[in-house]
Design goal:
This is RING-type E3 ubiquitin transferase. By secondary structure, the protein is an alpha+beta fold. The protein has helices at residues 4-44, 51-61, 112-117, 168-187, 190-198, 249-291, 293-324, 332-345, and strands spanning 48-50, 67-73, 87-98, 121-124, 129-132, 139-142, 155-163, 206-217, 222-226, 229-231, 236-239, 244-246.
Length: 346
């Protein structure tokens, strides 16, 4: 039969686990924010140019500088299945539908790496598409490679749901999730809900499947982040390895700033959780040390003896080896001095 002290140890262990998990999540979002801020700062330094400007620059220098190249993608042979409009990139995806999706903000999430190994995606894209200037006849040929960031340029062409028959218990779980989402929409912090549940393993009840179709439509304004290259043989301008496709420079930066805000909410949440759980664990350690002072002293002594001292010995051995090793190019007098210094150090 468990005692009150055993329950306290279990409770402290659970809170300790929460503390460690919170520290890891805080570090994860903090590091993401740092990378995103650096990316935004770099993107703001890139100028915006139209196709004609880049064509002249590439013809004079063979290769242009990195910039946002604006133009109109020309119609190709691809068409959307749902909207029947011309597109330059079409992605068809089949995903599982869960009850928690009702209170998560709808968002197009696409990852080339995930799509390349998943059978849920069907990607159709031409090897090149023409990006034409709005006013002149100048154009550049653009290739979409597998690591090009296209998320900011994607638009949804529609979806079709396929609901499966639910059991009585699954119906109850589905309605409970809808009720929970309604409460959160009215009273809860929506931004925090997005952060905690979008990448969470908790998805609710599996209620069916959804066939999505999204991509990049033709004949609309598009901005390509990359360098234009002038081919002296074909006399054509190409953008072989674009870094990103987006509707505009401001739109691309706005999407990153929105991600920055969401990460900021997560950082504050995990920071508060880290502080509270750490405060509780620190208090429990203090009380335990007050009751059993010798045990904690033994633990500290063990760490000093077997961990810290071992690290100091490794550093000392490395220093001795570095000093004791005579330089081949030194004269005999210098070698003797180095050996005497190493002996004295030992």
């Amino acid at each position: 039969m468990s005692t009150k002290e055993d329950k306290q140890y279990f409770k402290t262990g659970v809170v300790g686990f929460v503390f460690m998990y919170s520290v890891l999540k805080f570090g994860h979002y903090f590091n993401n924010n740092r990378k995103t801020k650096n990316q935004i700062k770099k993107l703001k330094s890139y100028p915006i140019k139209n196709v004609s400007e880049v064509v002249k620059e590439a013809q004079n220098q063979t290769k242009s500088n990195i910039c946002f190249i604006e133009g109109i993608p020309q119609q190709g042979s691809l068409h959307s299945t749902f909207k029947k409009i011309p597109v330059i990139l079409r992605i068809q995806q089949r995903t599982s539908l869960f009850s928690c999706d009702s209170f998560l903000e709808p968002r197009i999430k696409f990852d080339w790496k995930e799509a390349s190994v998943s059978s849920d995606y069907q990607i159709d894209k031409p090897p090149y598409f023409a990006l034409k200037d709005k006013l002149t006849q100048n154009e550049a040929h653009v290739s979409i490679r597998d690591d090009t960031d296209v998320s900011a340029a994607l638009m949804s062409f529609g979806f079709k749901d396929e609901k499966r028959s639910l059991s009585f218990a699954e119906h109850i779980g589905n309605y409970a999730t809808i009720f929970y989402s309604s409460i959160f929409r009215v009273f809860g912090p929506i931004a925090l809900t997005q952060v905690l549940f979008r990448d969470s393993s908790f998805k609710g009840v599996h209620i069916g499947y959804r066939d999505n179709e999204f991509g990049i439509k033709a004949d609309g304004l598009l901005s390509v982040l990359g360098q234009a290259v002038y081919n002296t043989d074909t006399k054509k301008i190409t953008i072989e390895n674009p870094l990103a496709l987006t509707l505009s420079k401001n739109n691309y930066i706005y999407q990153l700033e929105k991600k920055l805000q969401e990460n900021g909410v997560a950082i504050n949440f995990w920071l508060v959780l880290t502080f509270l759980s750490g405060l509780y664990v620190s208090r429990r350690i203090y009380l335990y040390n007050k009751k059993h002072p010798k045990i904690l002293q033994k633990v500290i002594a063990f760490i000093k003896k077997h961990v810290l001292r071992r690290g100091q010995n490794i550093e000392g051995d490395a220093a001795i080896n570095q000093i004791a090793k005579p330089q081949e190019n030194l004269p005999d007098e210098k070698k003797a001095q180095a050996n005497e210094t190493a002996t004295a150090f030992q």
